[in-house]
Amino acid sequence: MNELELKPCPLCGGPGLYRSALRRWVKCTAPNCEMQDVTVKRWQSRPIEDALTARIAELESEVRRLEADNARLRAVIERAACTLARGRMAGVDPGEWAWMAEQDLVRAVNCQRQEALGLEVQP
Ligand SMILES: [Zn+2]
Q1: What is the CA(19)–ligand 1 centre distance, in A?
Q2: pTM of this prediction?
Q3: Is 106 part of any domain?
Q4: Same domain, 108 and 69
Q5: Is the pLDDT of residue 22 over 60?
Q6: Residue 123: its pLDDT value, please?
Q7: Is position 53 within any domain?
Q8: How far is the CA of 39 from the centre of ligand 1 (A)?
Q9: Are residues 69 and 110 in the same domain?
Q10: What is the pLDDT of residues 33-62, one digit of tens each?
């Protein structure tokens, strides 16, 4: 029978010890801790910690998604800035190059929306 690795005491963080060979009961070995004769299931249960761990994973995933969005949007802004600079250097009418840059942004935003909807991105 594989021995289940006991988590630290849910009350004090001290080490746990099986009470018997059947390994159904656990006690905390820290002095004066109240966690004595606790079922293994209760000892190992950490509903708040598990919920927080799941929430952290969810938020980390969201951060990665936002960082990727941020990188894409920065690229879009740089591309629009290049369009503006090229138009300015080429002597294109300011209204015309502003329109070109705006079109770049509109295309990029549409790509973002398509990606957000899980659609294949049309460049
Ligand atoms: Zn304890």
Answers
A1: 14
A2: 0.54
A3: yes
A4: yes
A5: yes
A6: 52
A7: no
A8: 14
A9: yes
A10: 999 999 999 999 999 999 999 999 999 999
The domain in which residue 107 lies consists of 64-116
Going from the Cα of 31 to the center of ligand 1, the distance in angstroms, rounded, reads 8
Q: Which CA distances in Å does 49 have to 10, 46, 67?
A: 10, 5, 26
Residue 2 in domain: yes
- How far, rounded to the nearest angstrom, does the alpha carbon of residue 57 sit from its chain's CA centroid? 5
Residue range 77-105: mean pLDDT, rounded = 78
**Domain-embedded: residue 69:** yes
pLDDT in tens, 55-82: 999 999 999 999 998 998 898 888 878 8
Cα distances (angstroms) measured from residue 100 to each of 17, 19, 72, 78, 83? 71, 75, 19, 13, 7
- For the chain, the 3-state helix, strand and coil shares in percent, each to the nearest 5, are 60, 5, 35
Distance 94 CA to ligand 1 centre (A): 72
Q: Are 40 and 70 members of one domain?
A: no
What's the CA-to-centroid distance between 57 and ligand 1, angstroms? 28
Total number of domains in the chain: 2
Tokens linked to 4: 């289940």
Task: Report how far ligand 1's centroid is from the alpha carbon of 17 (Å).
Answer: 10
- Ligand 1 center to 41 CA (angstroms): 15
**Which residues sit with Cβ closer than 5 angstroms to ligand 1, an ion?**
9, 11-12, 14, 28, 30, 33, 35
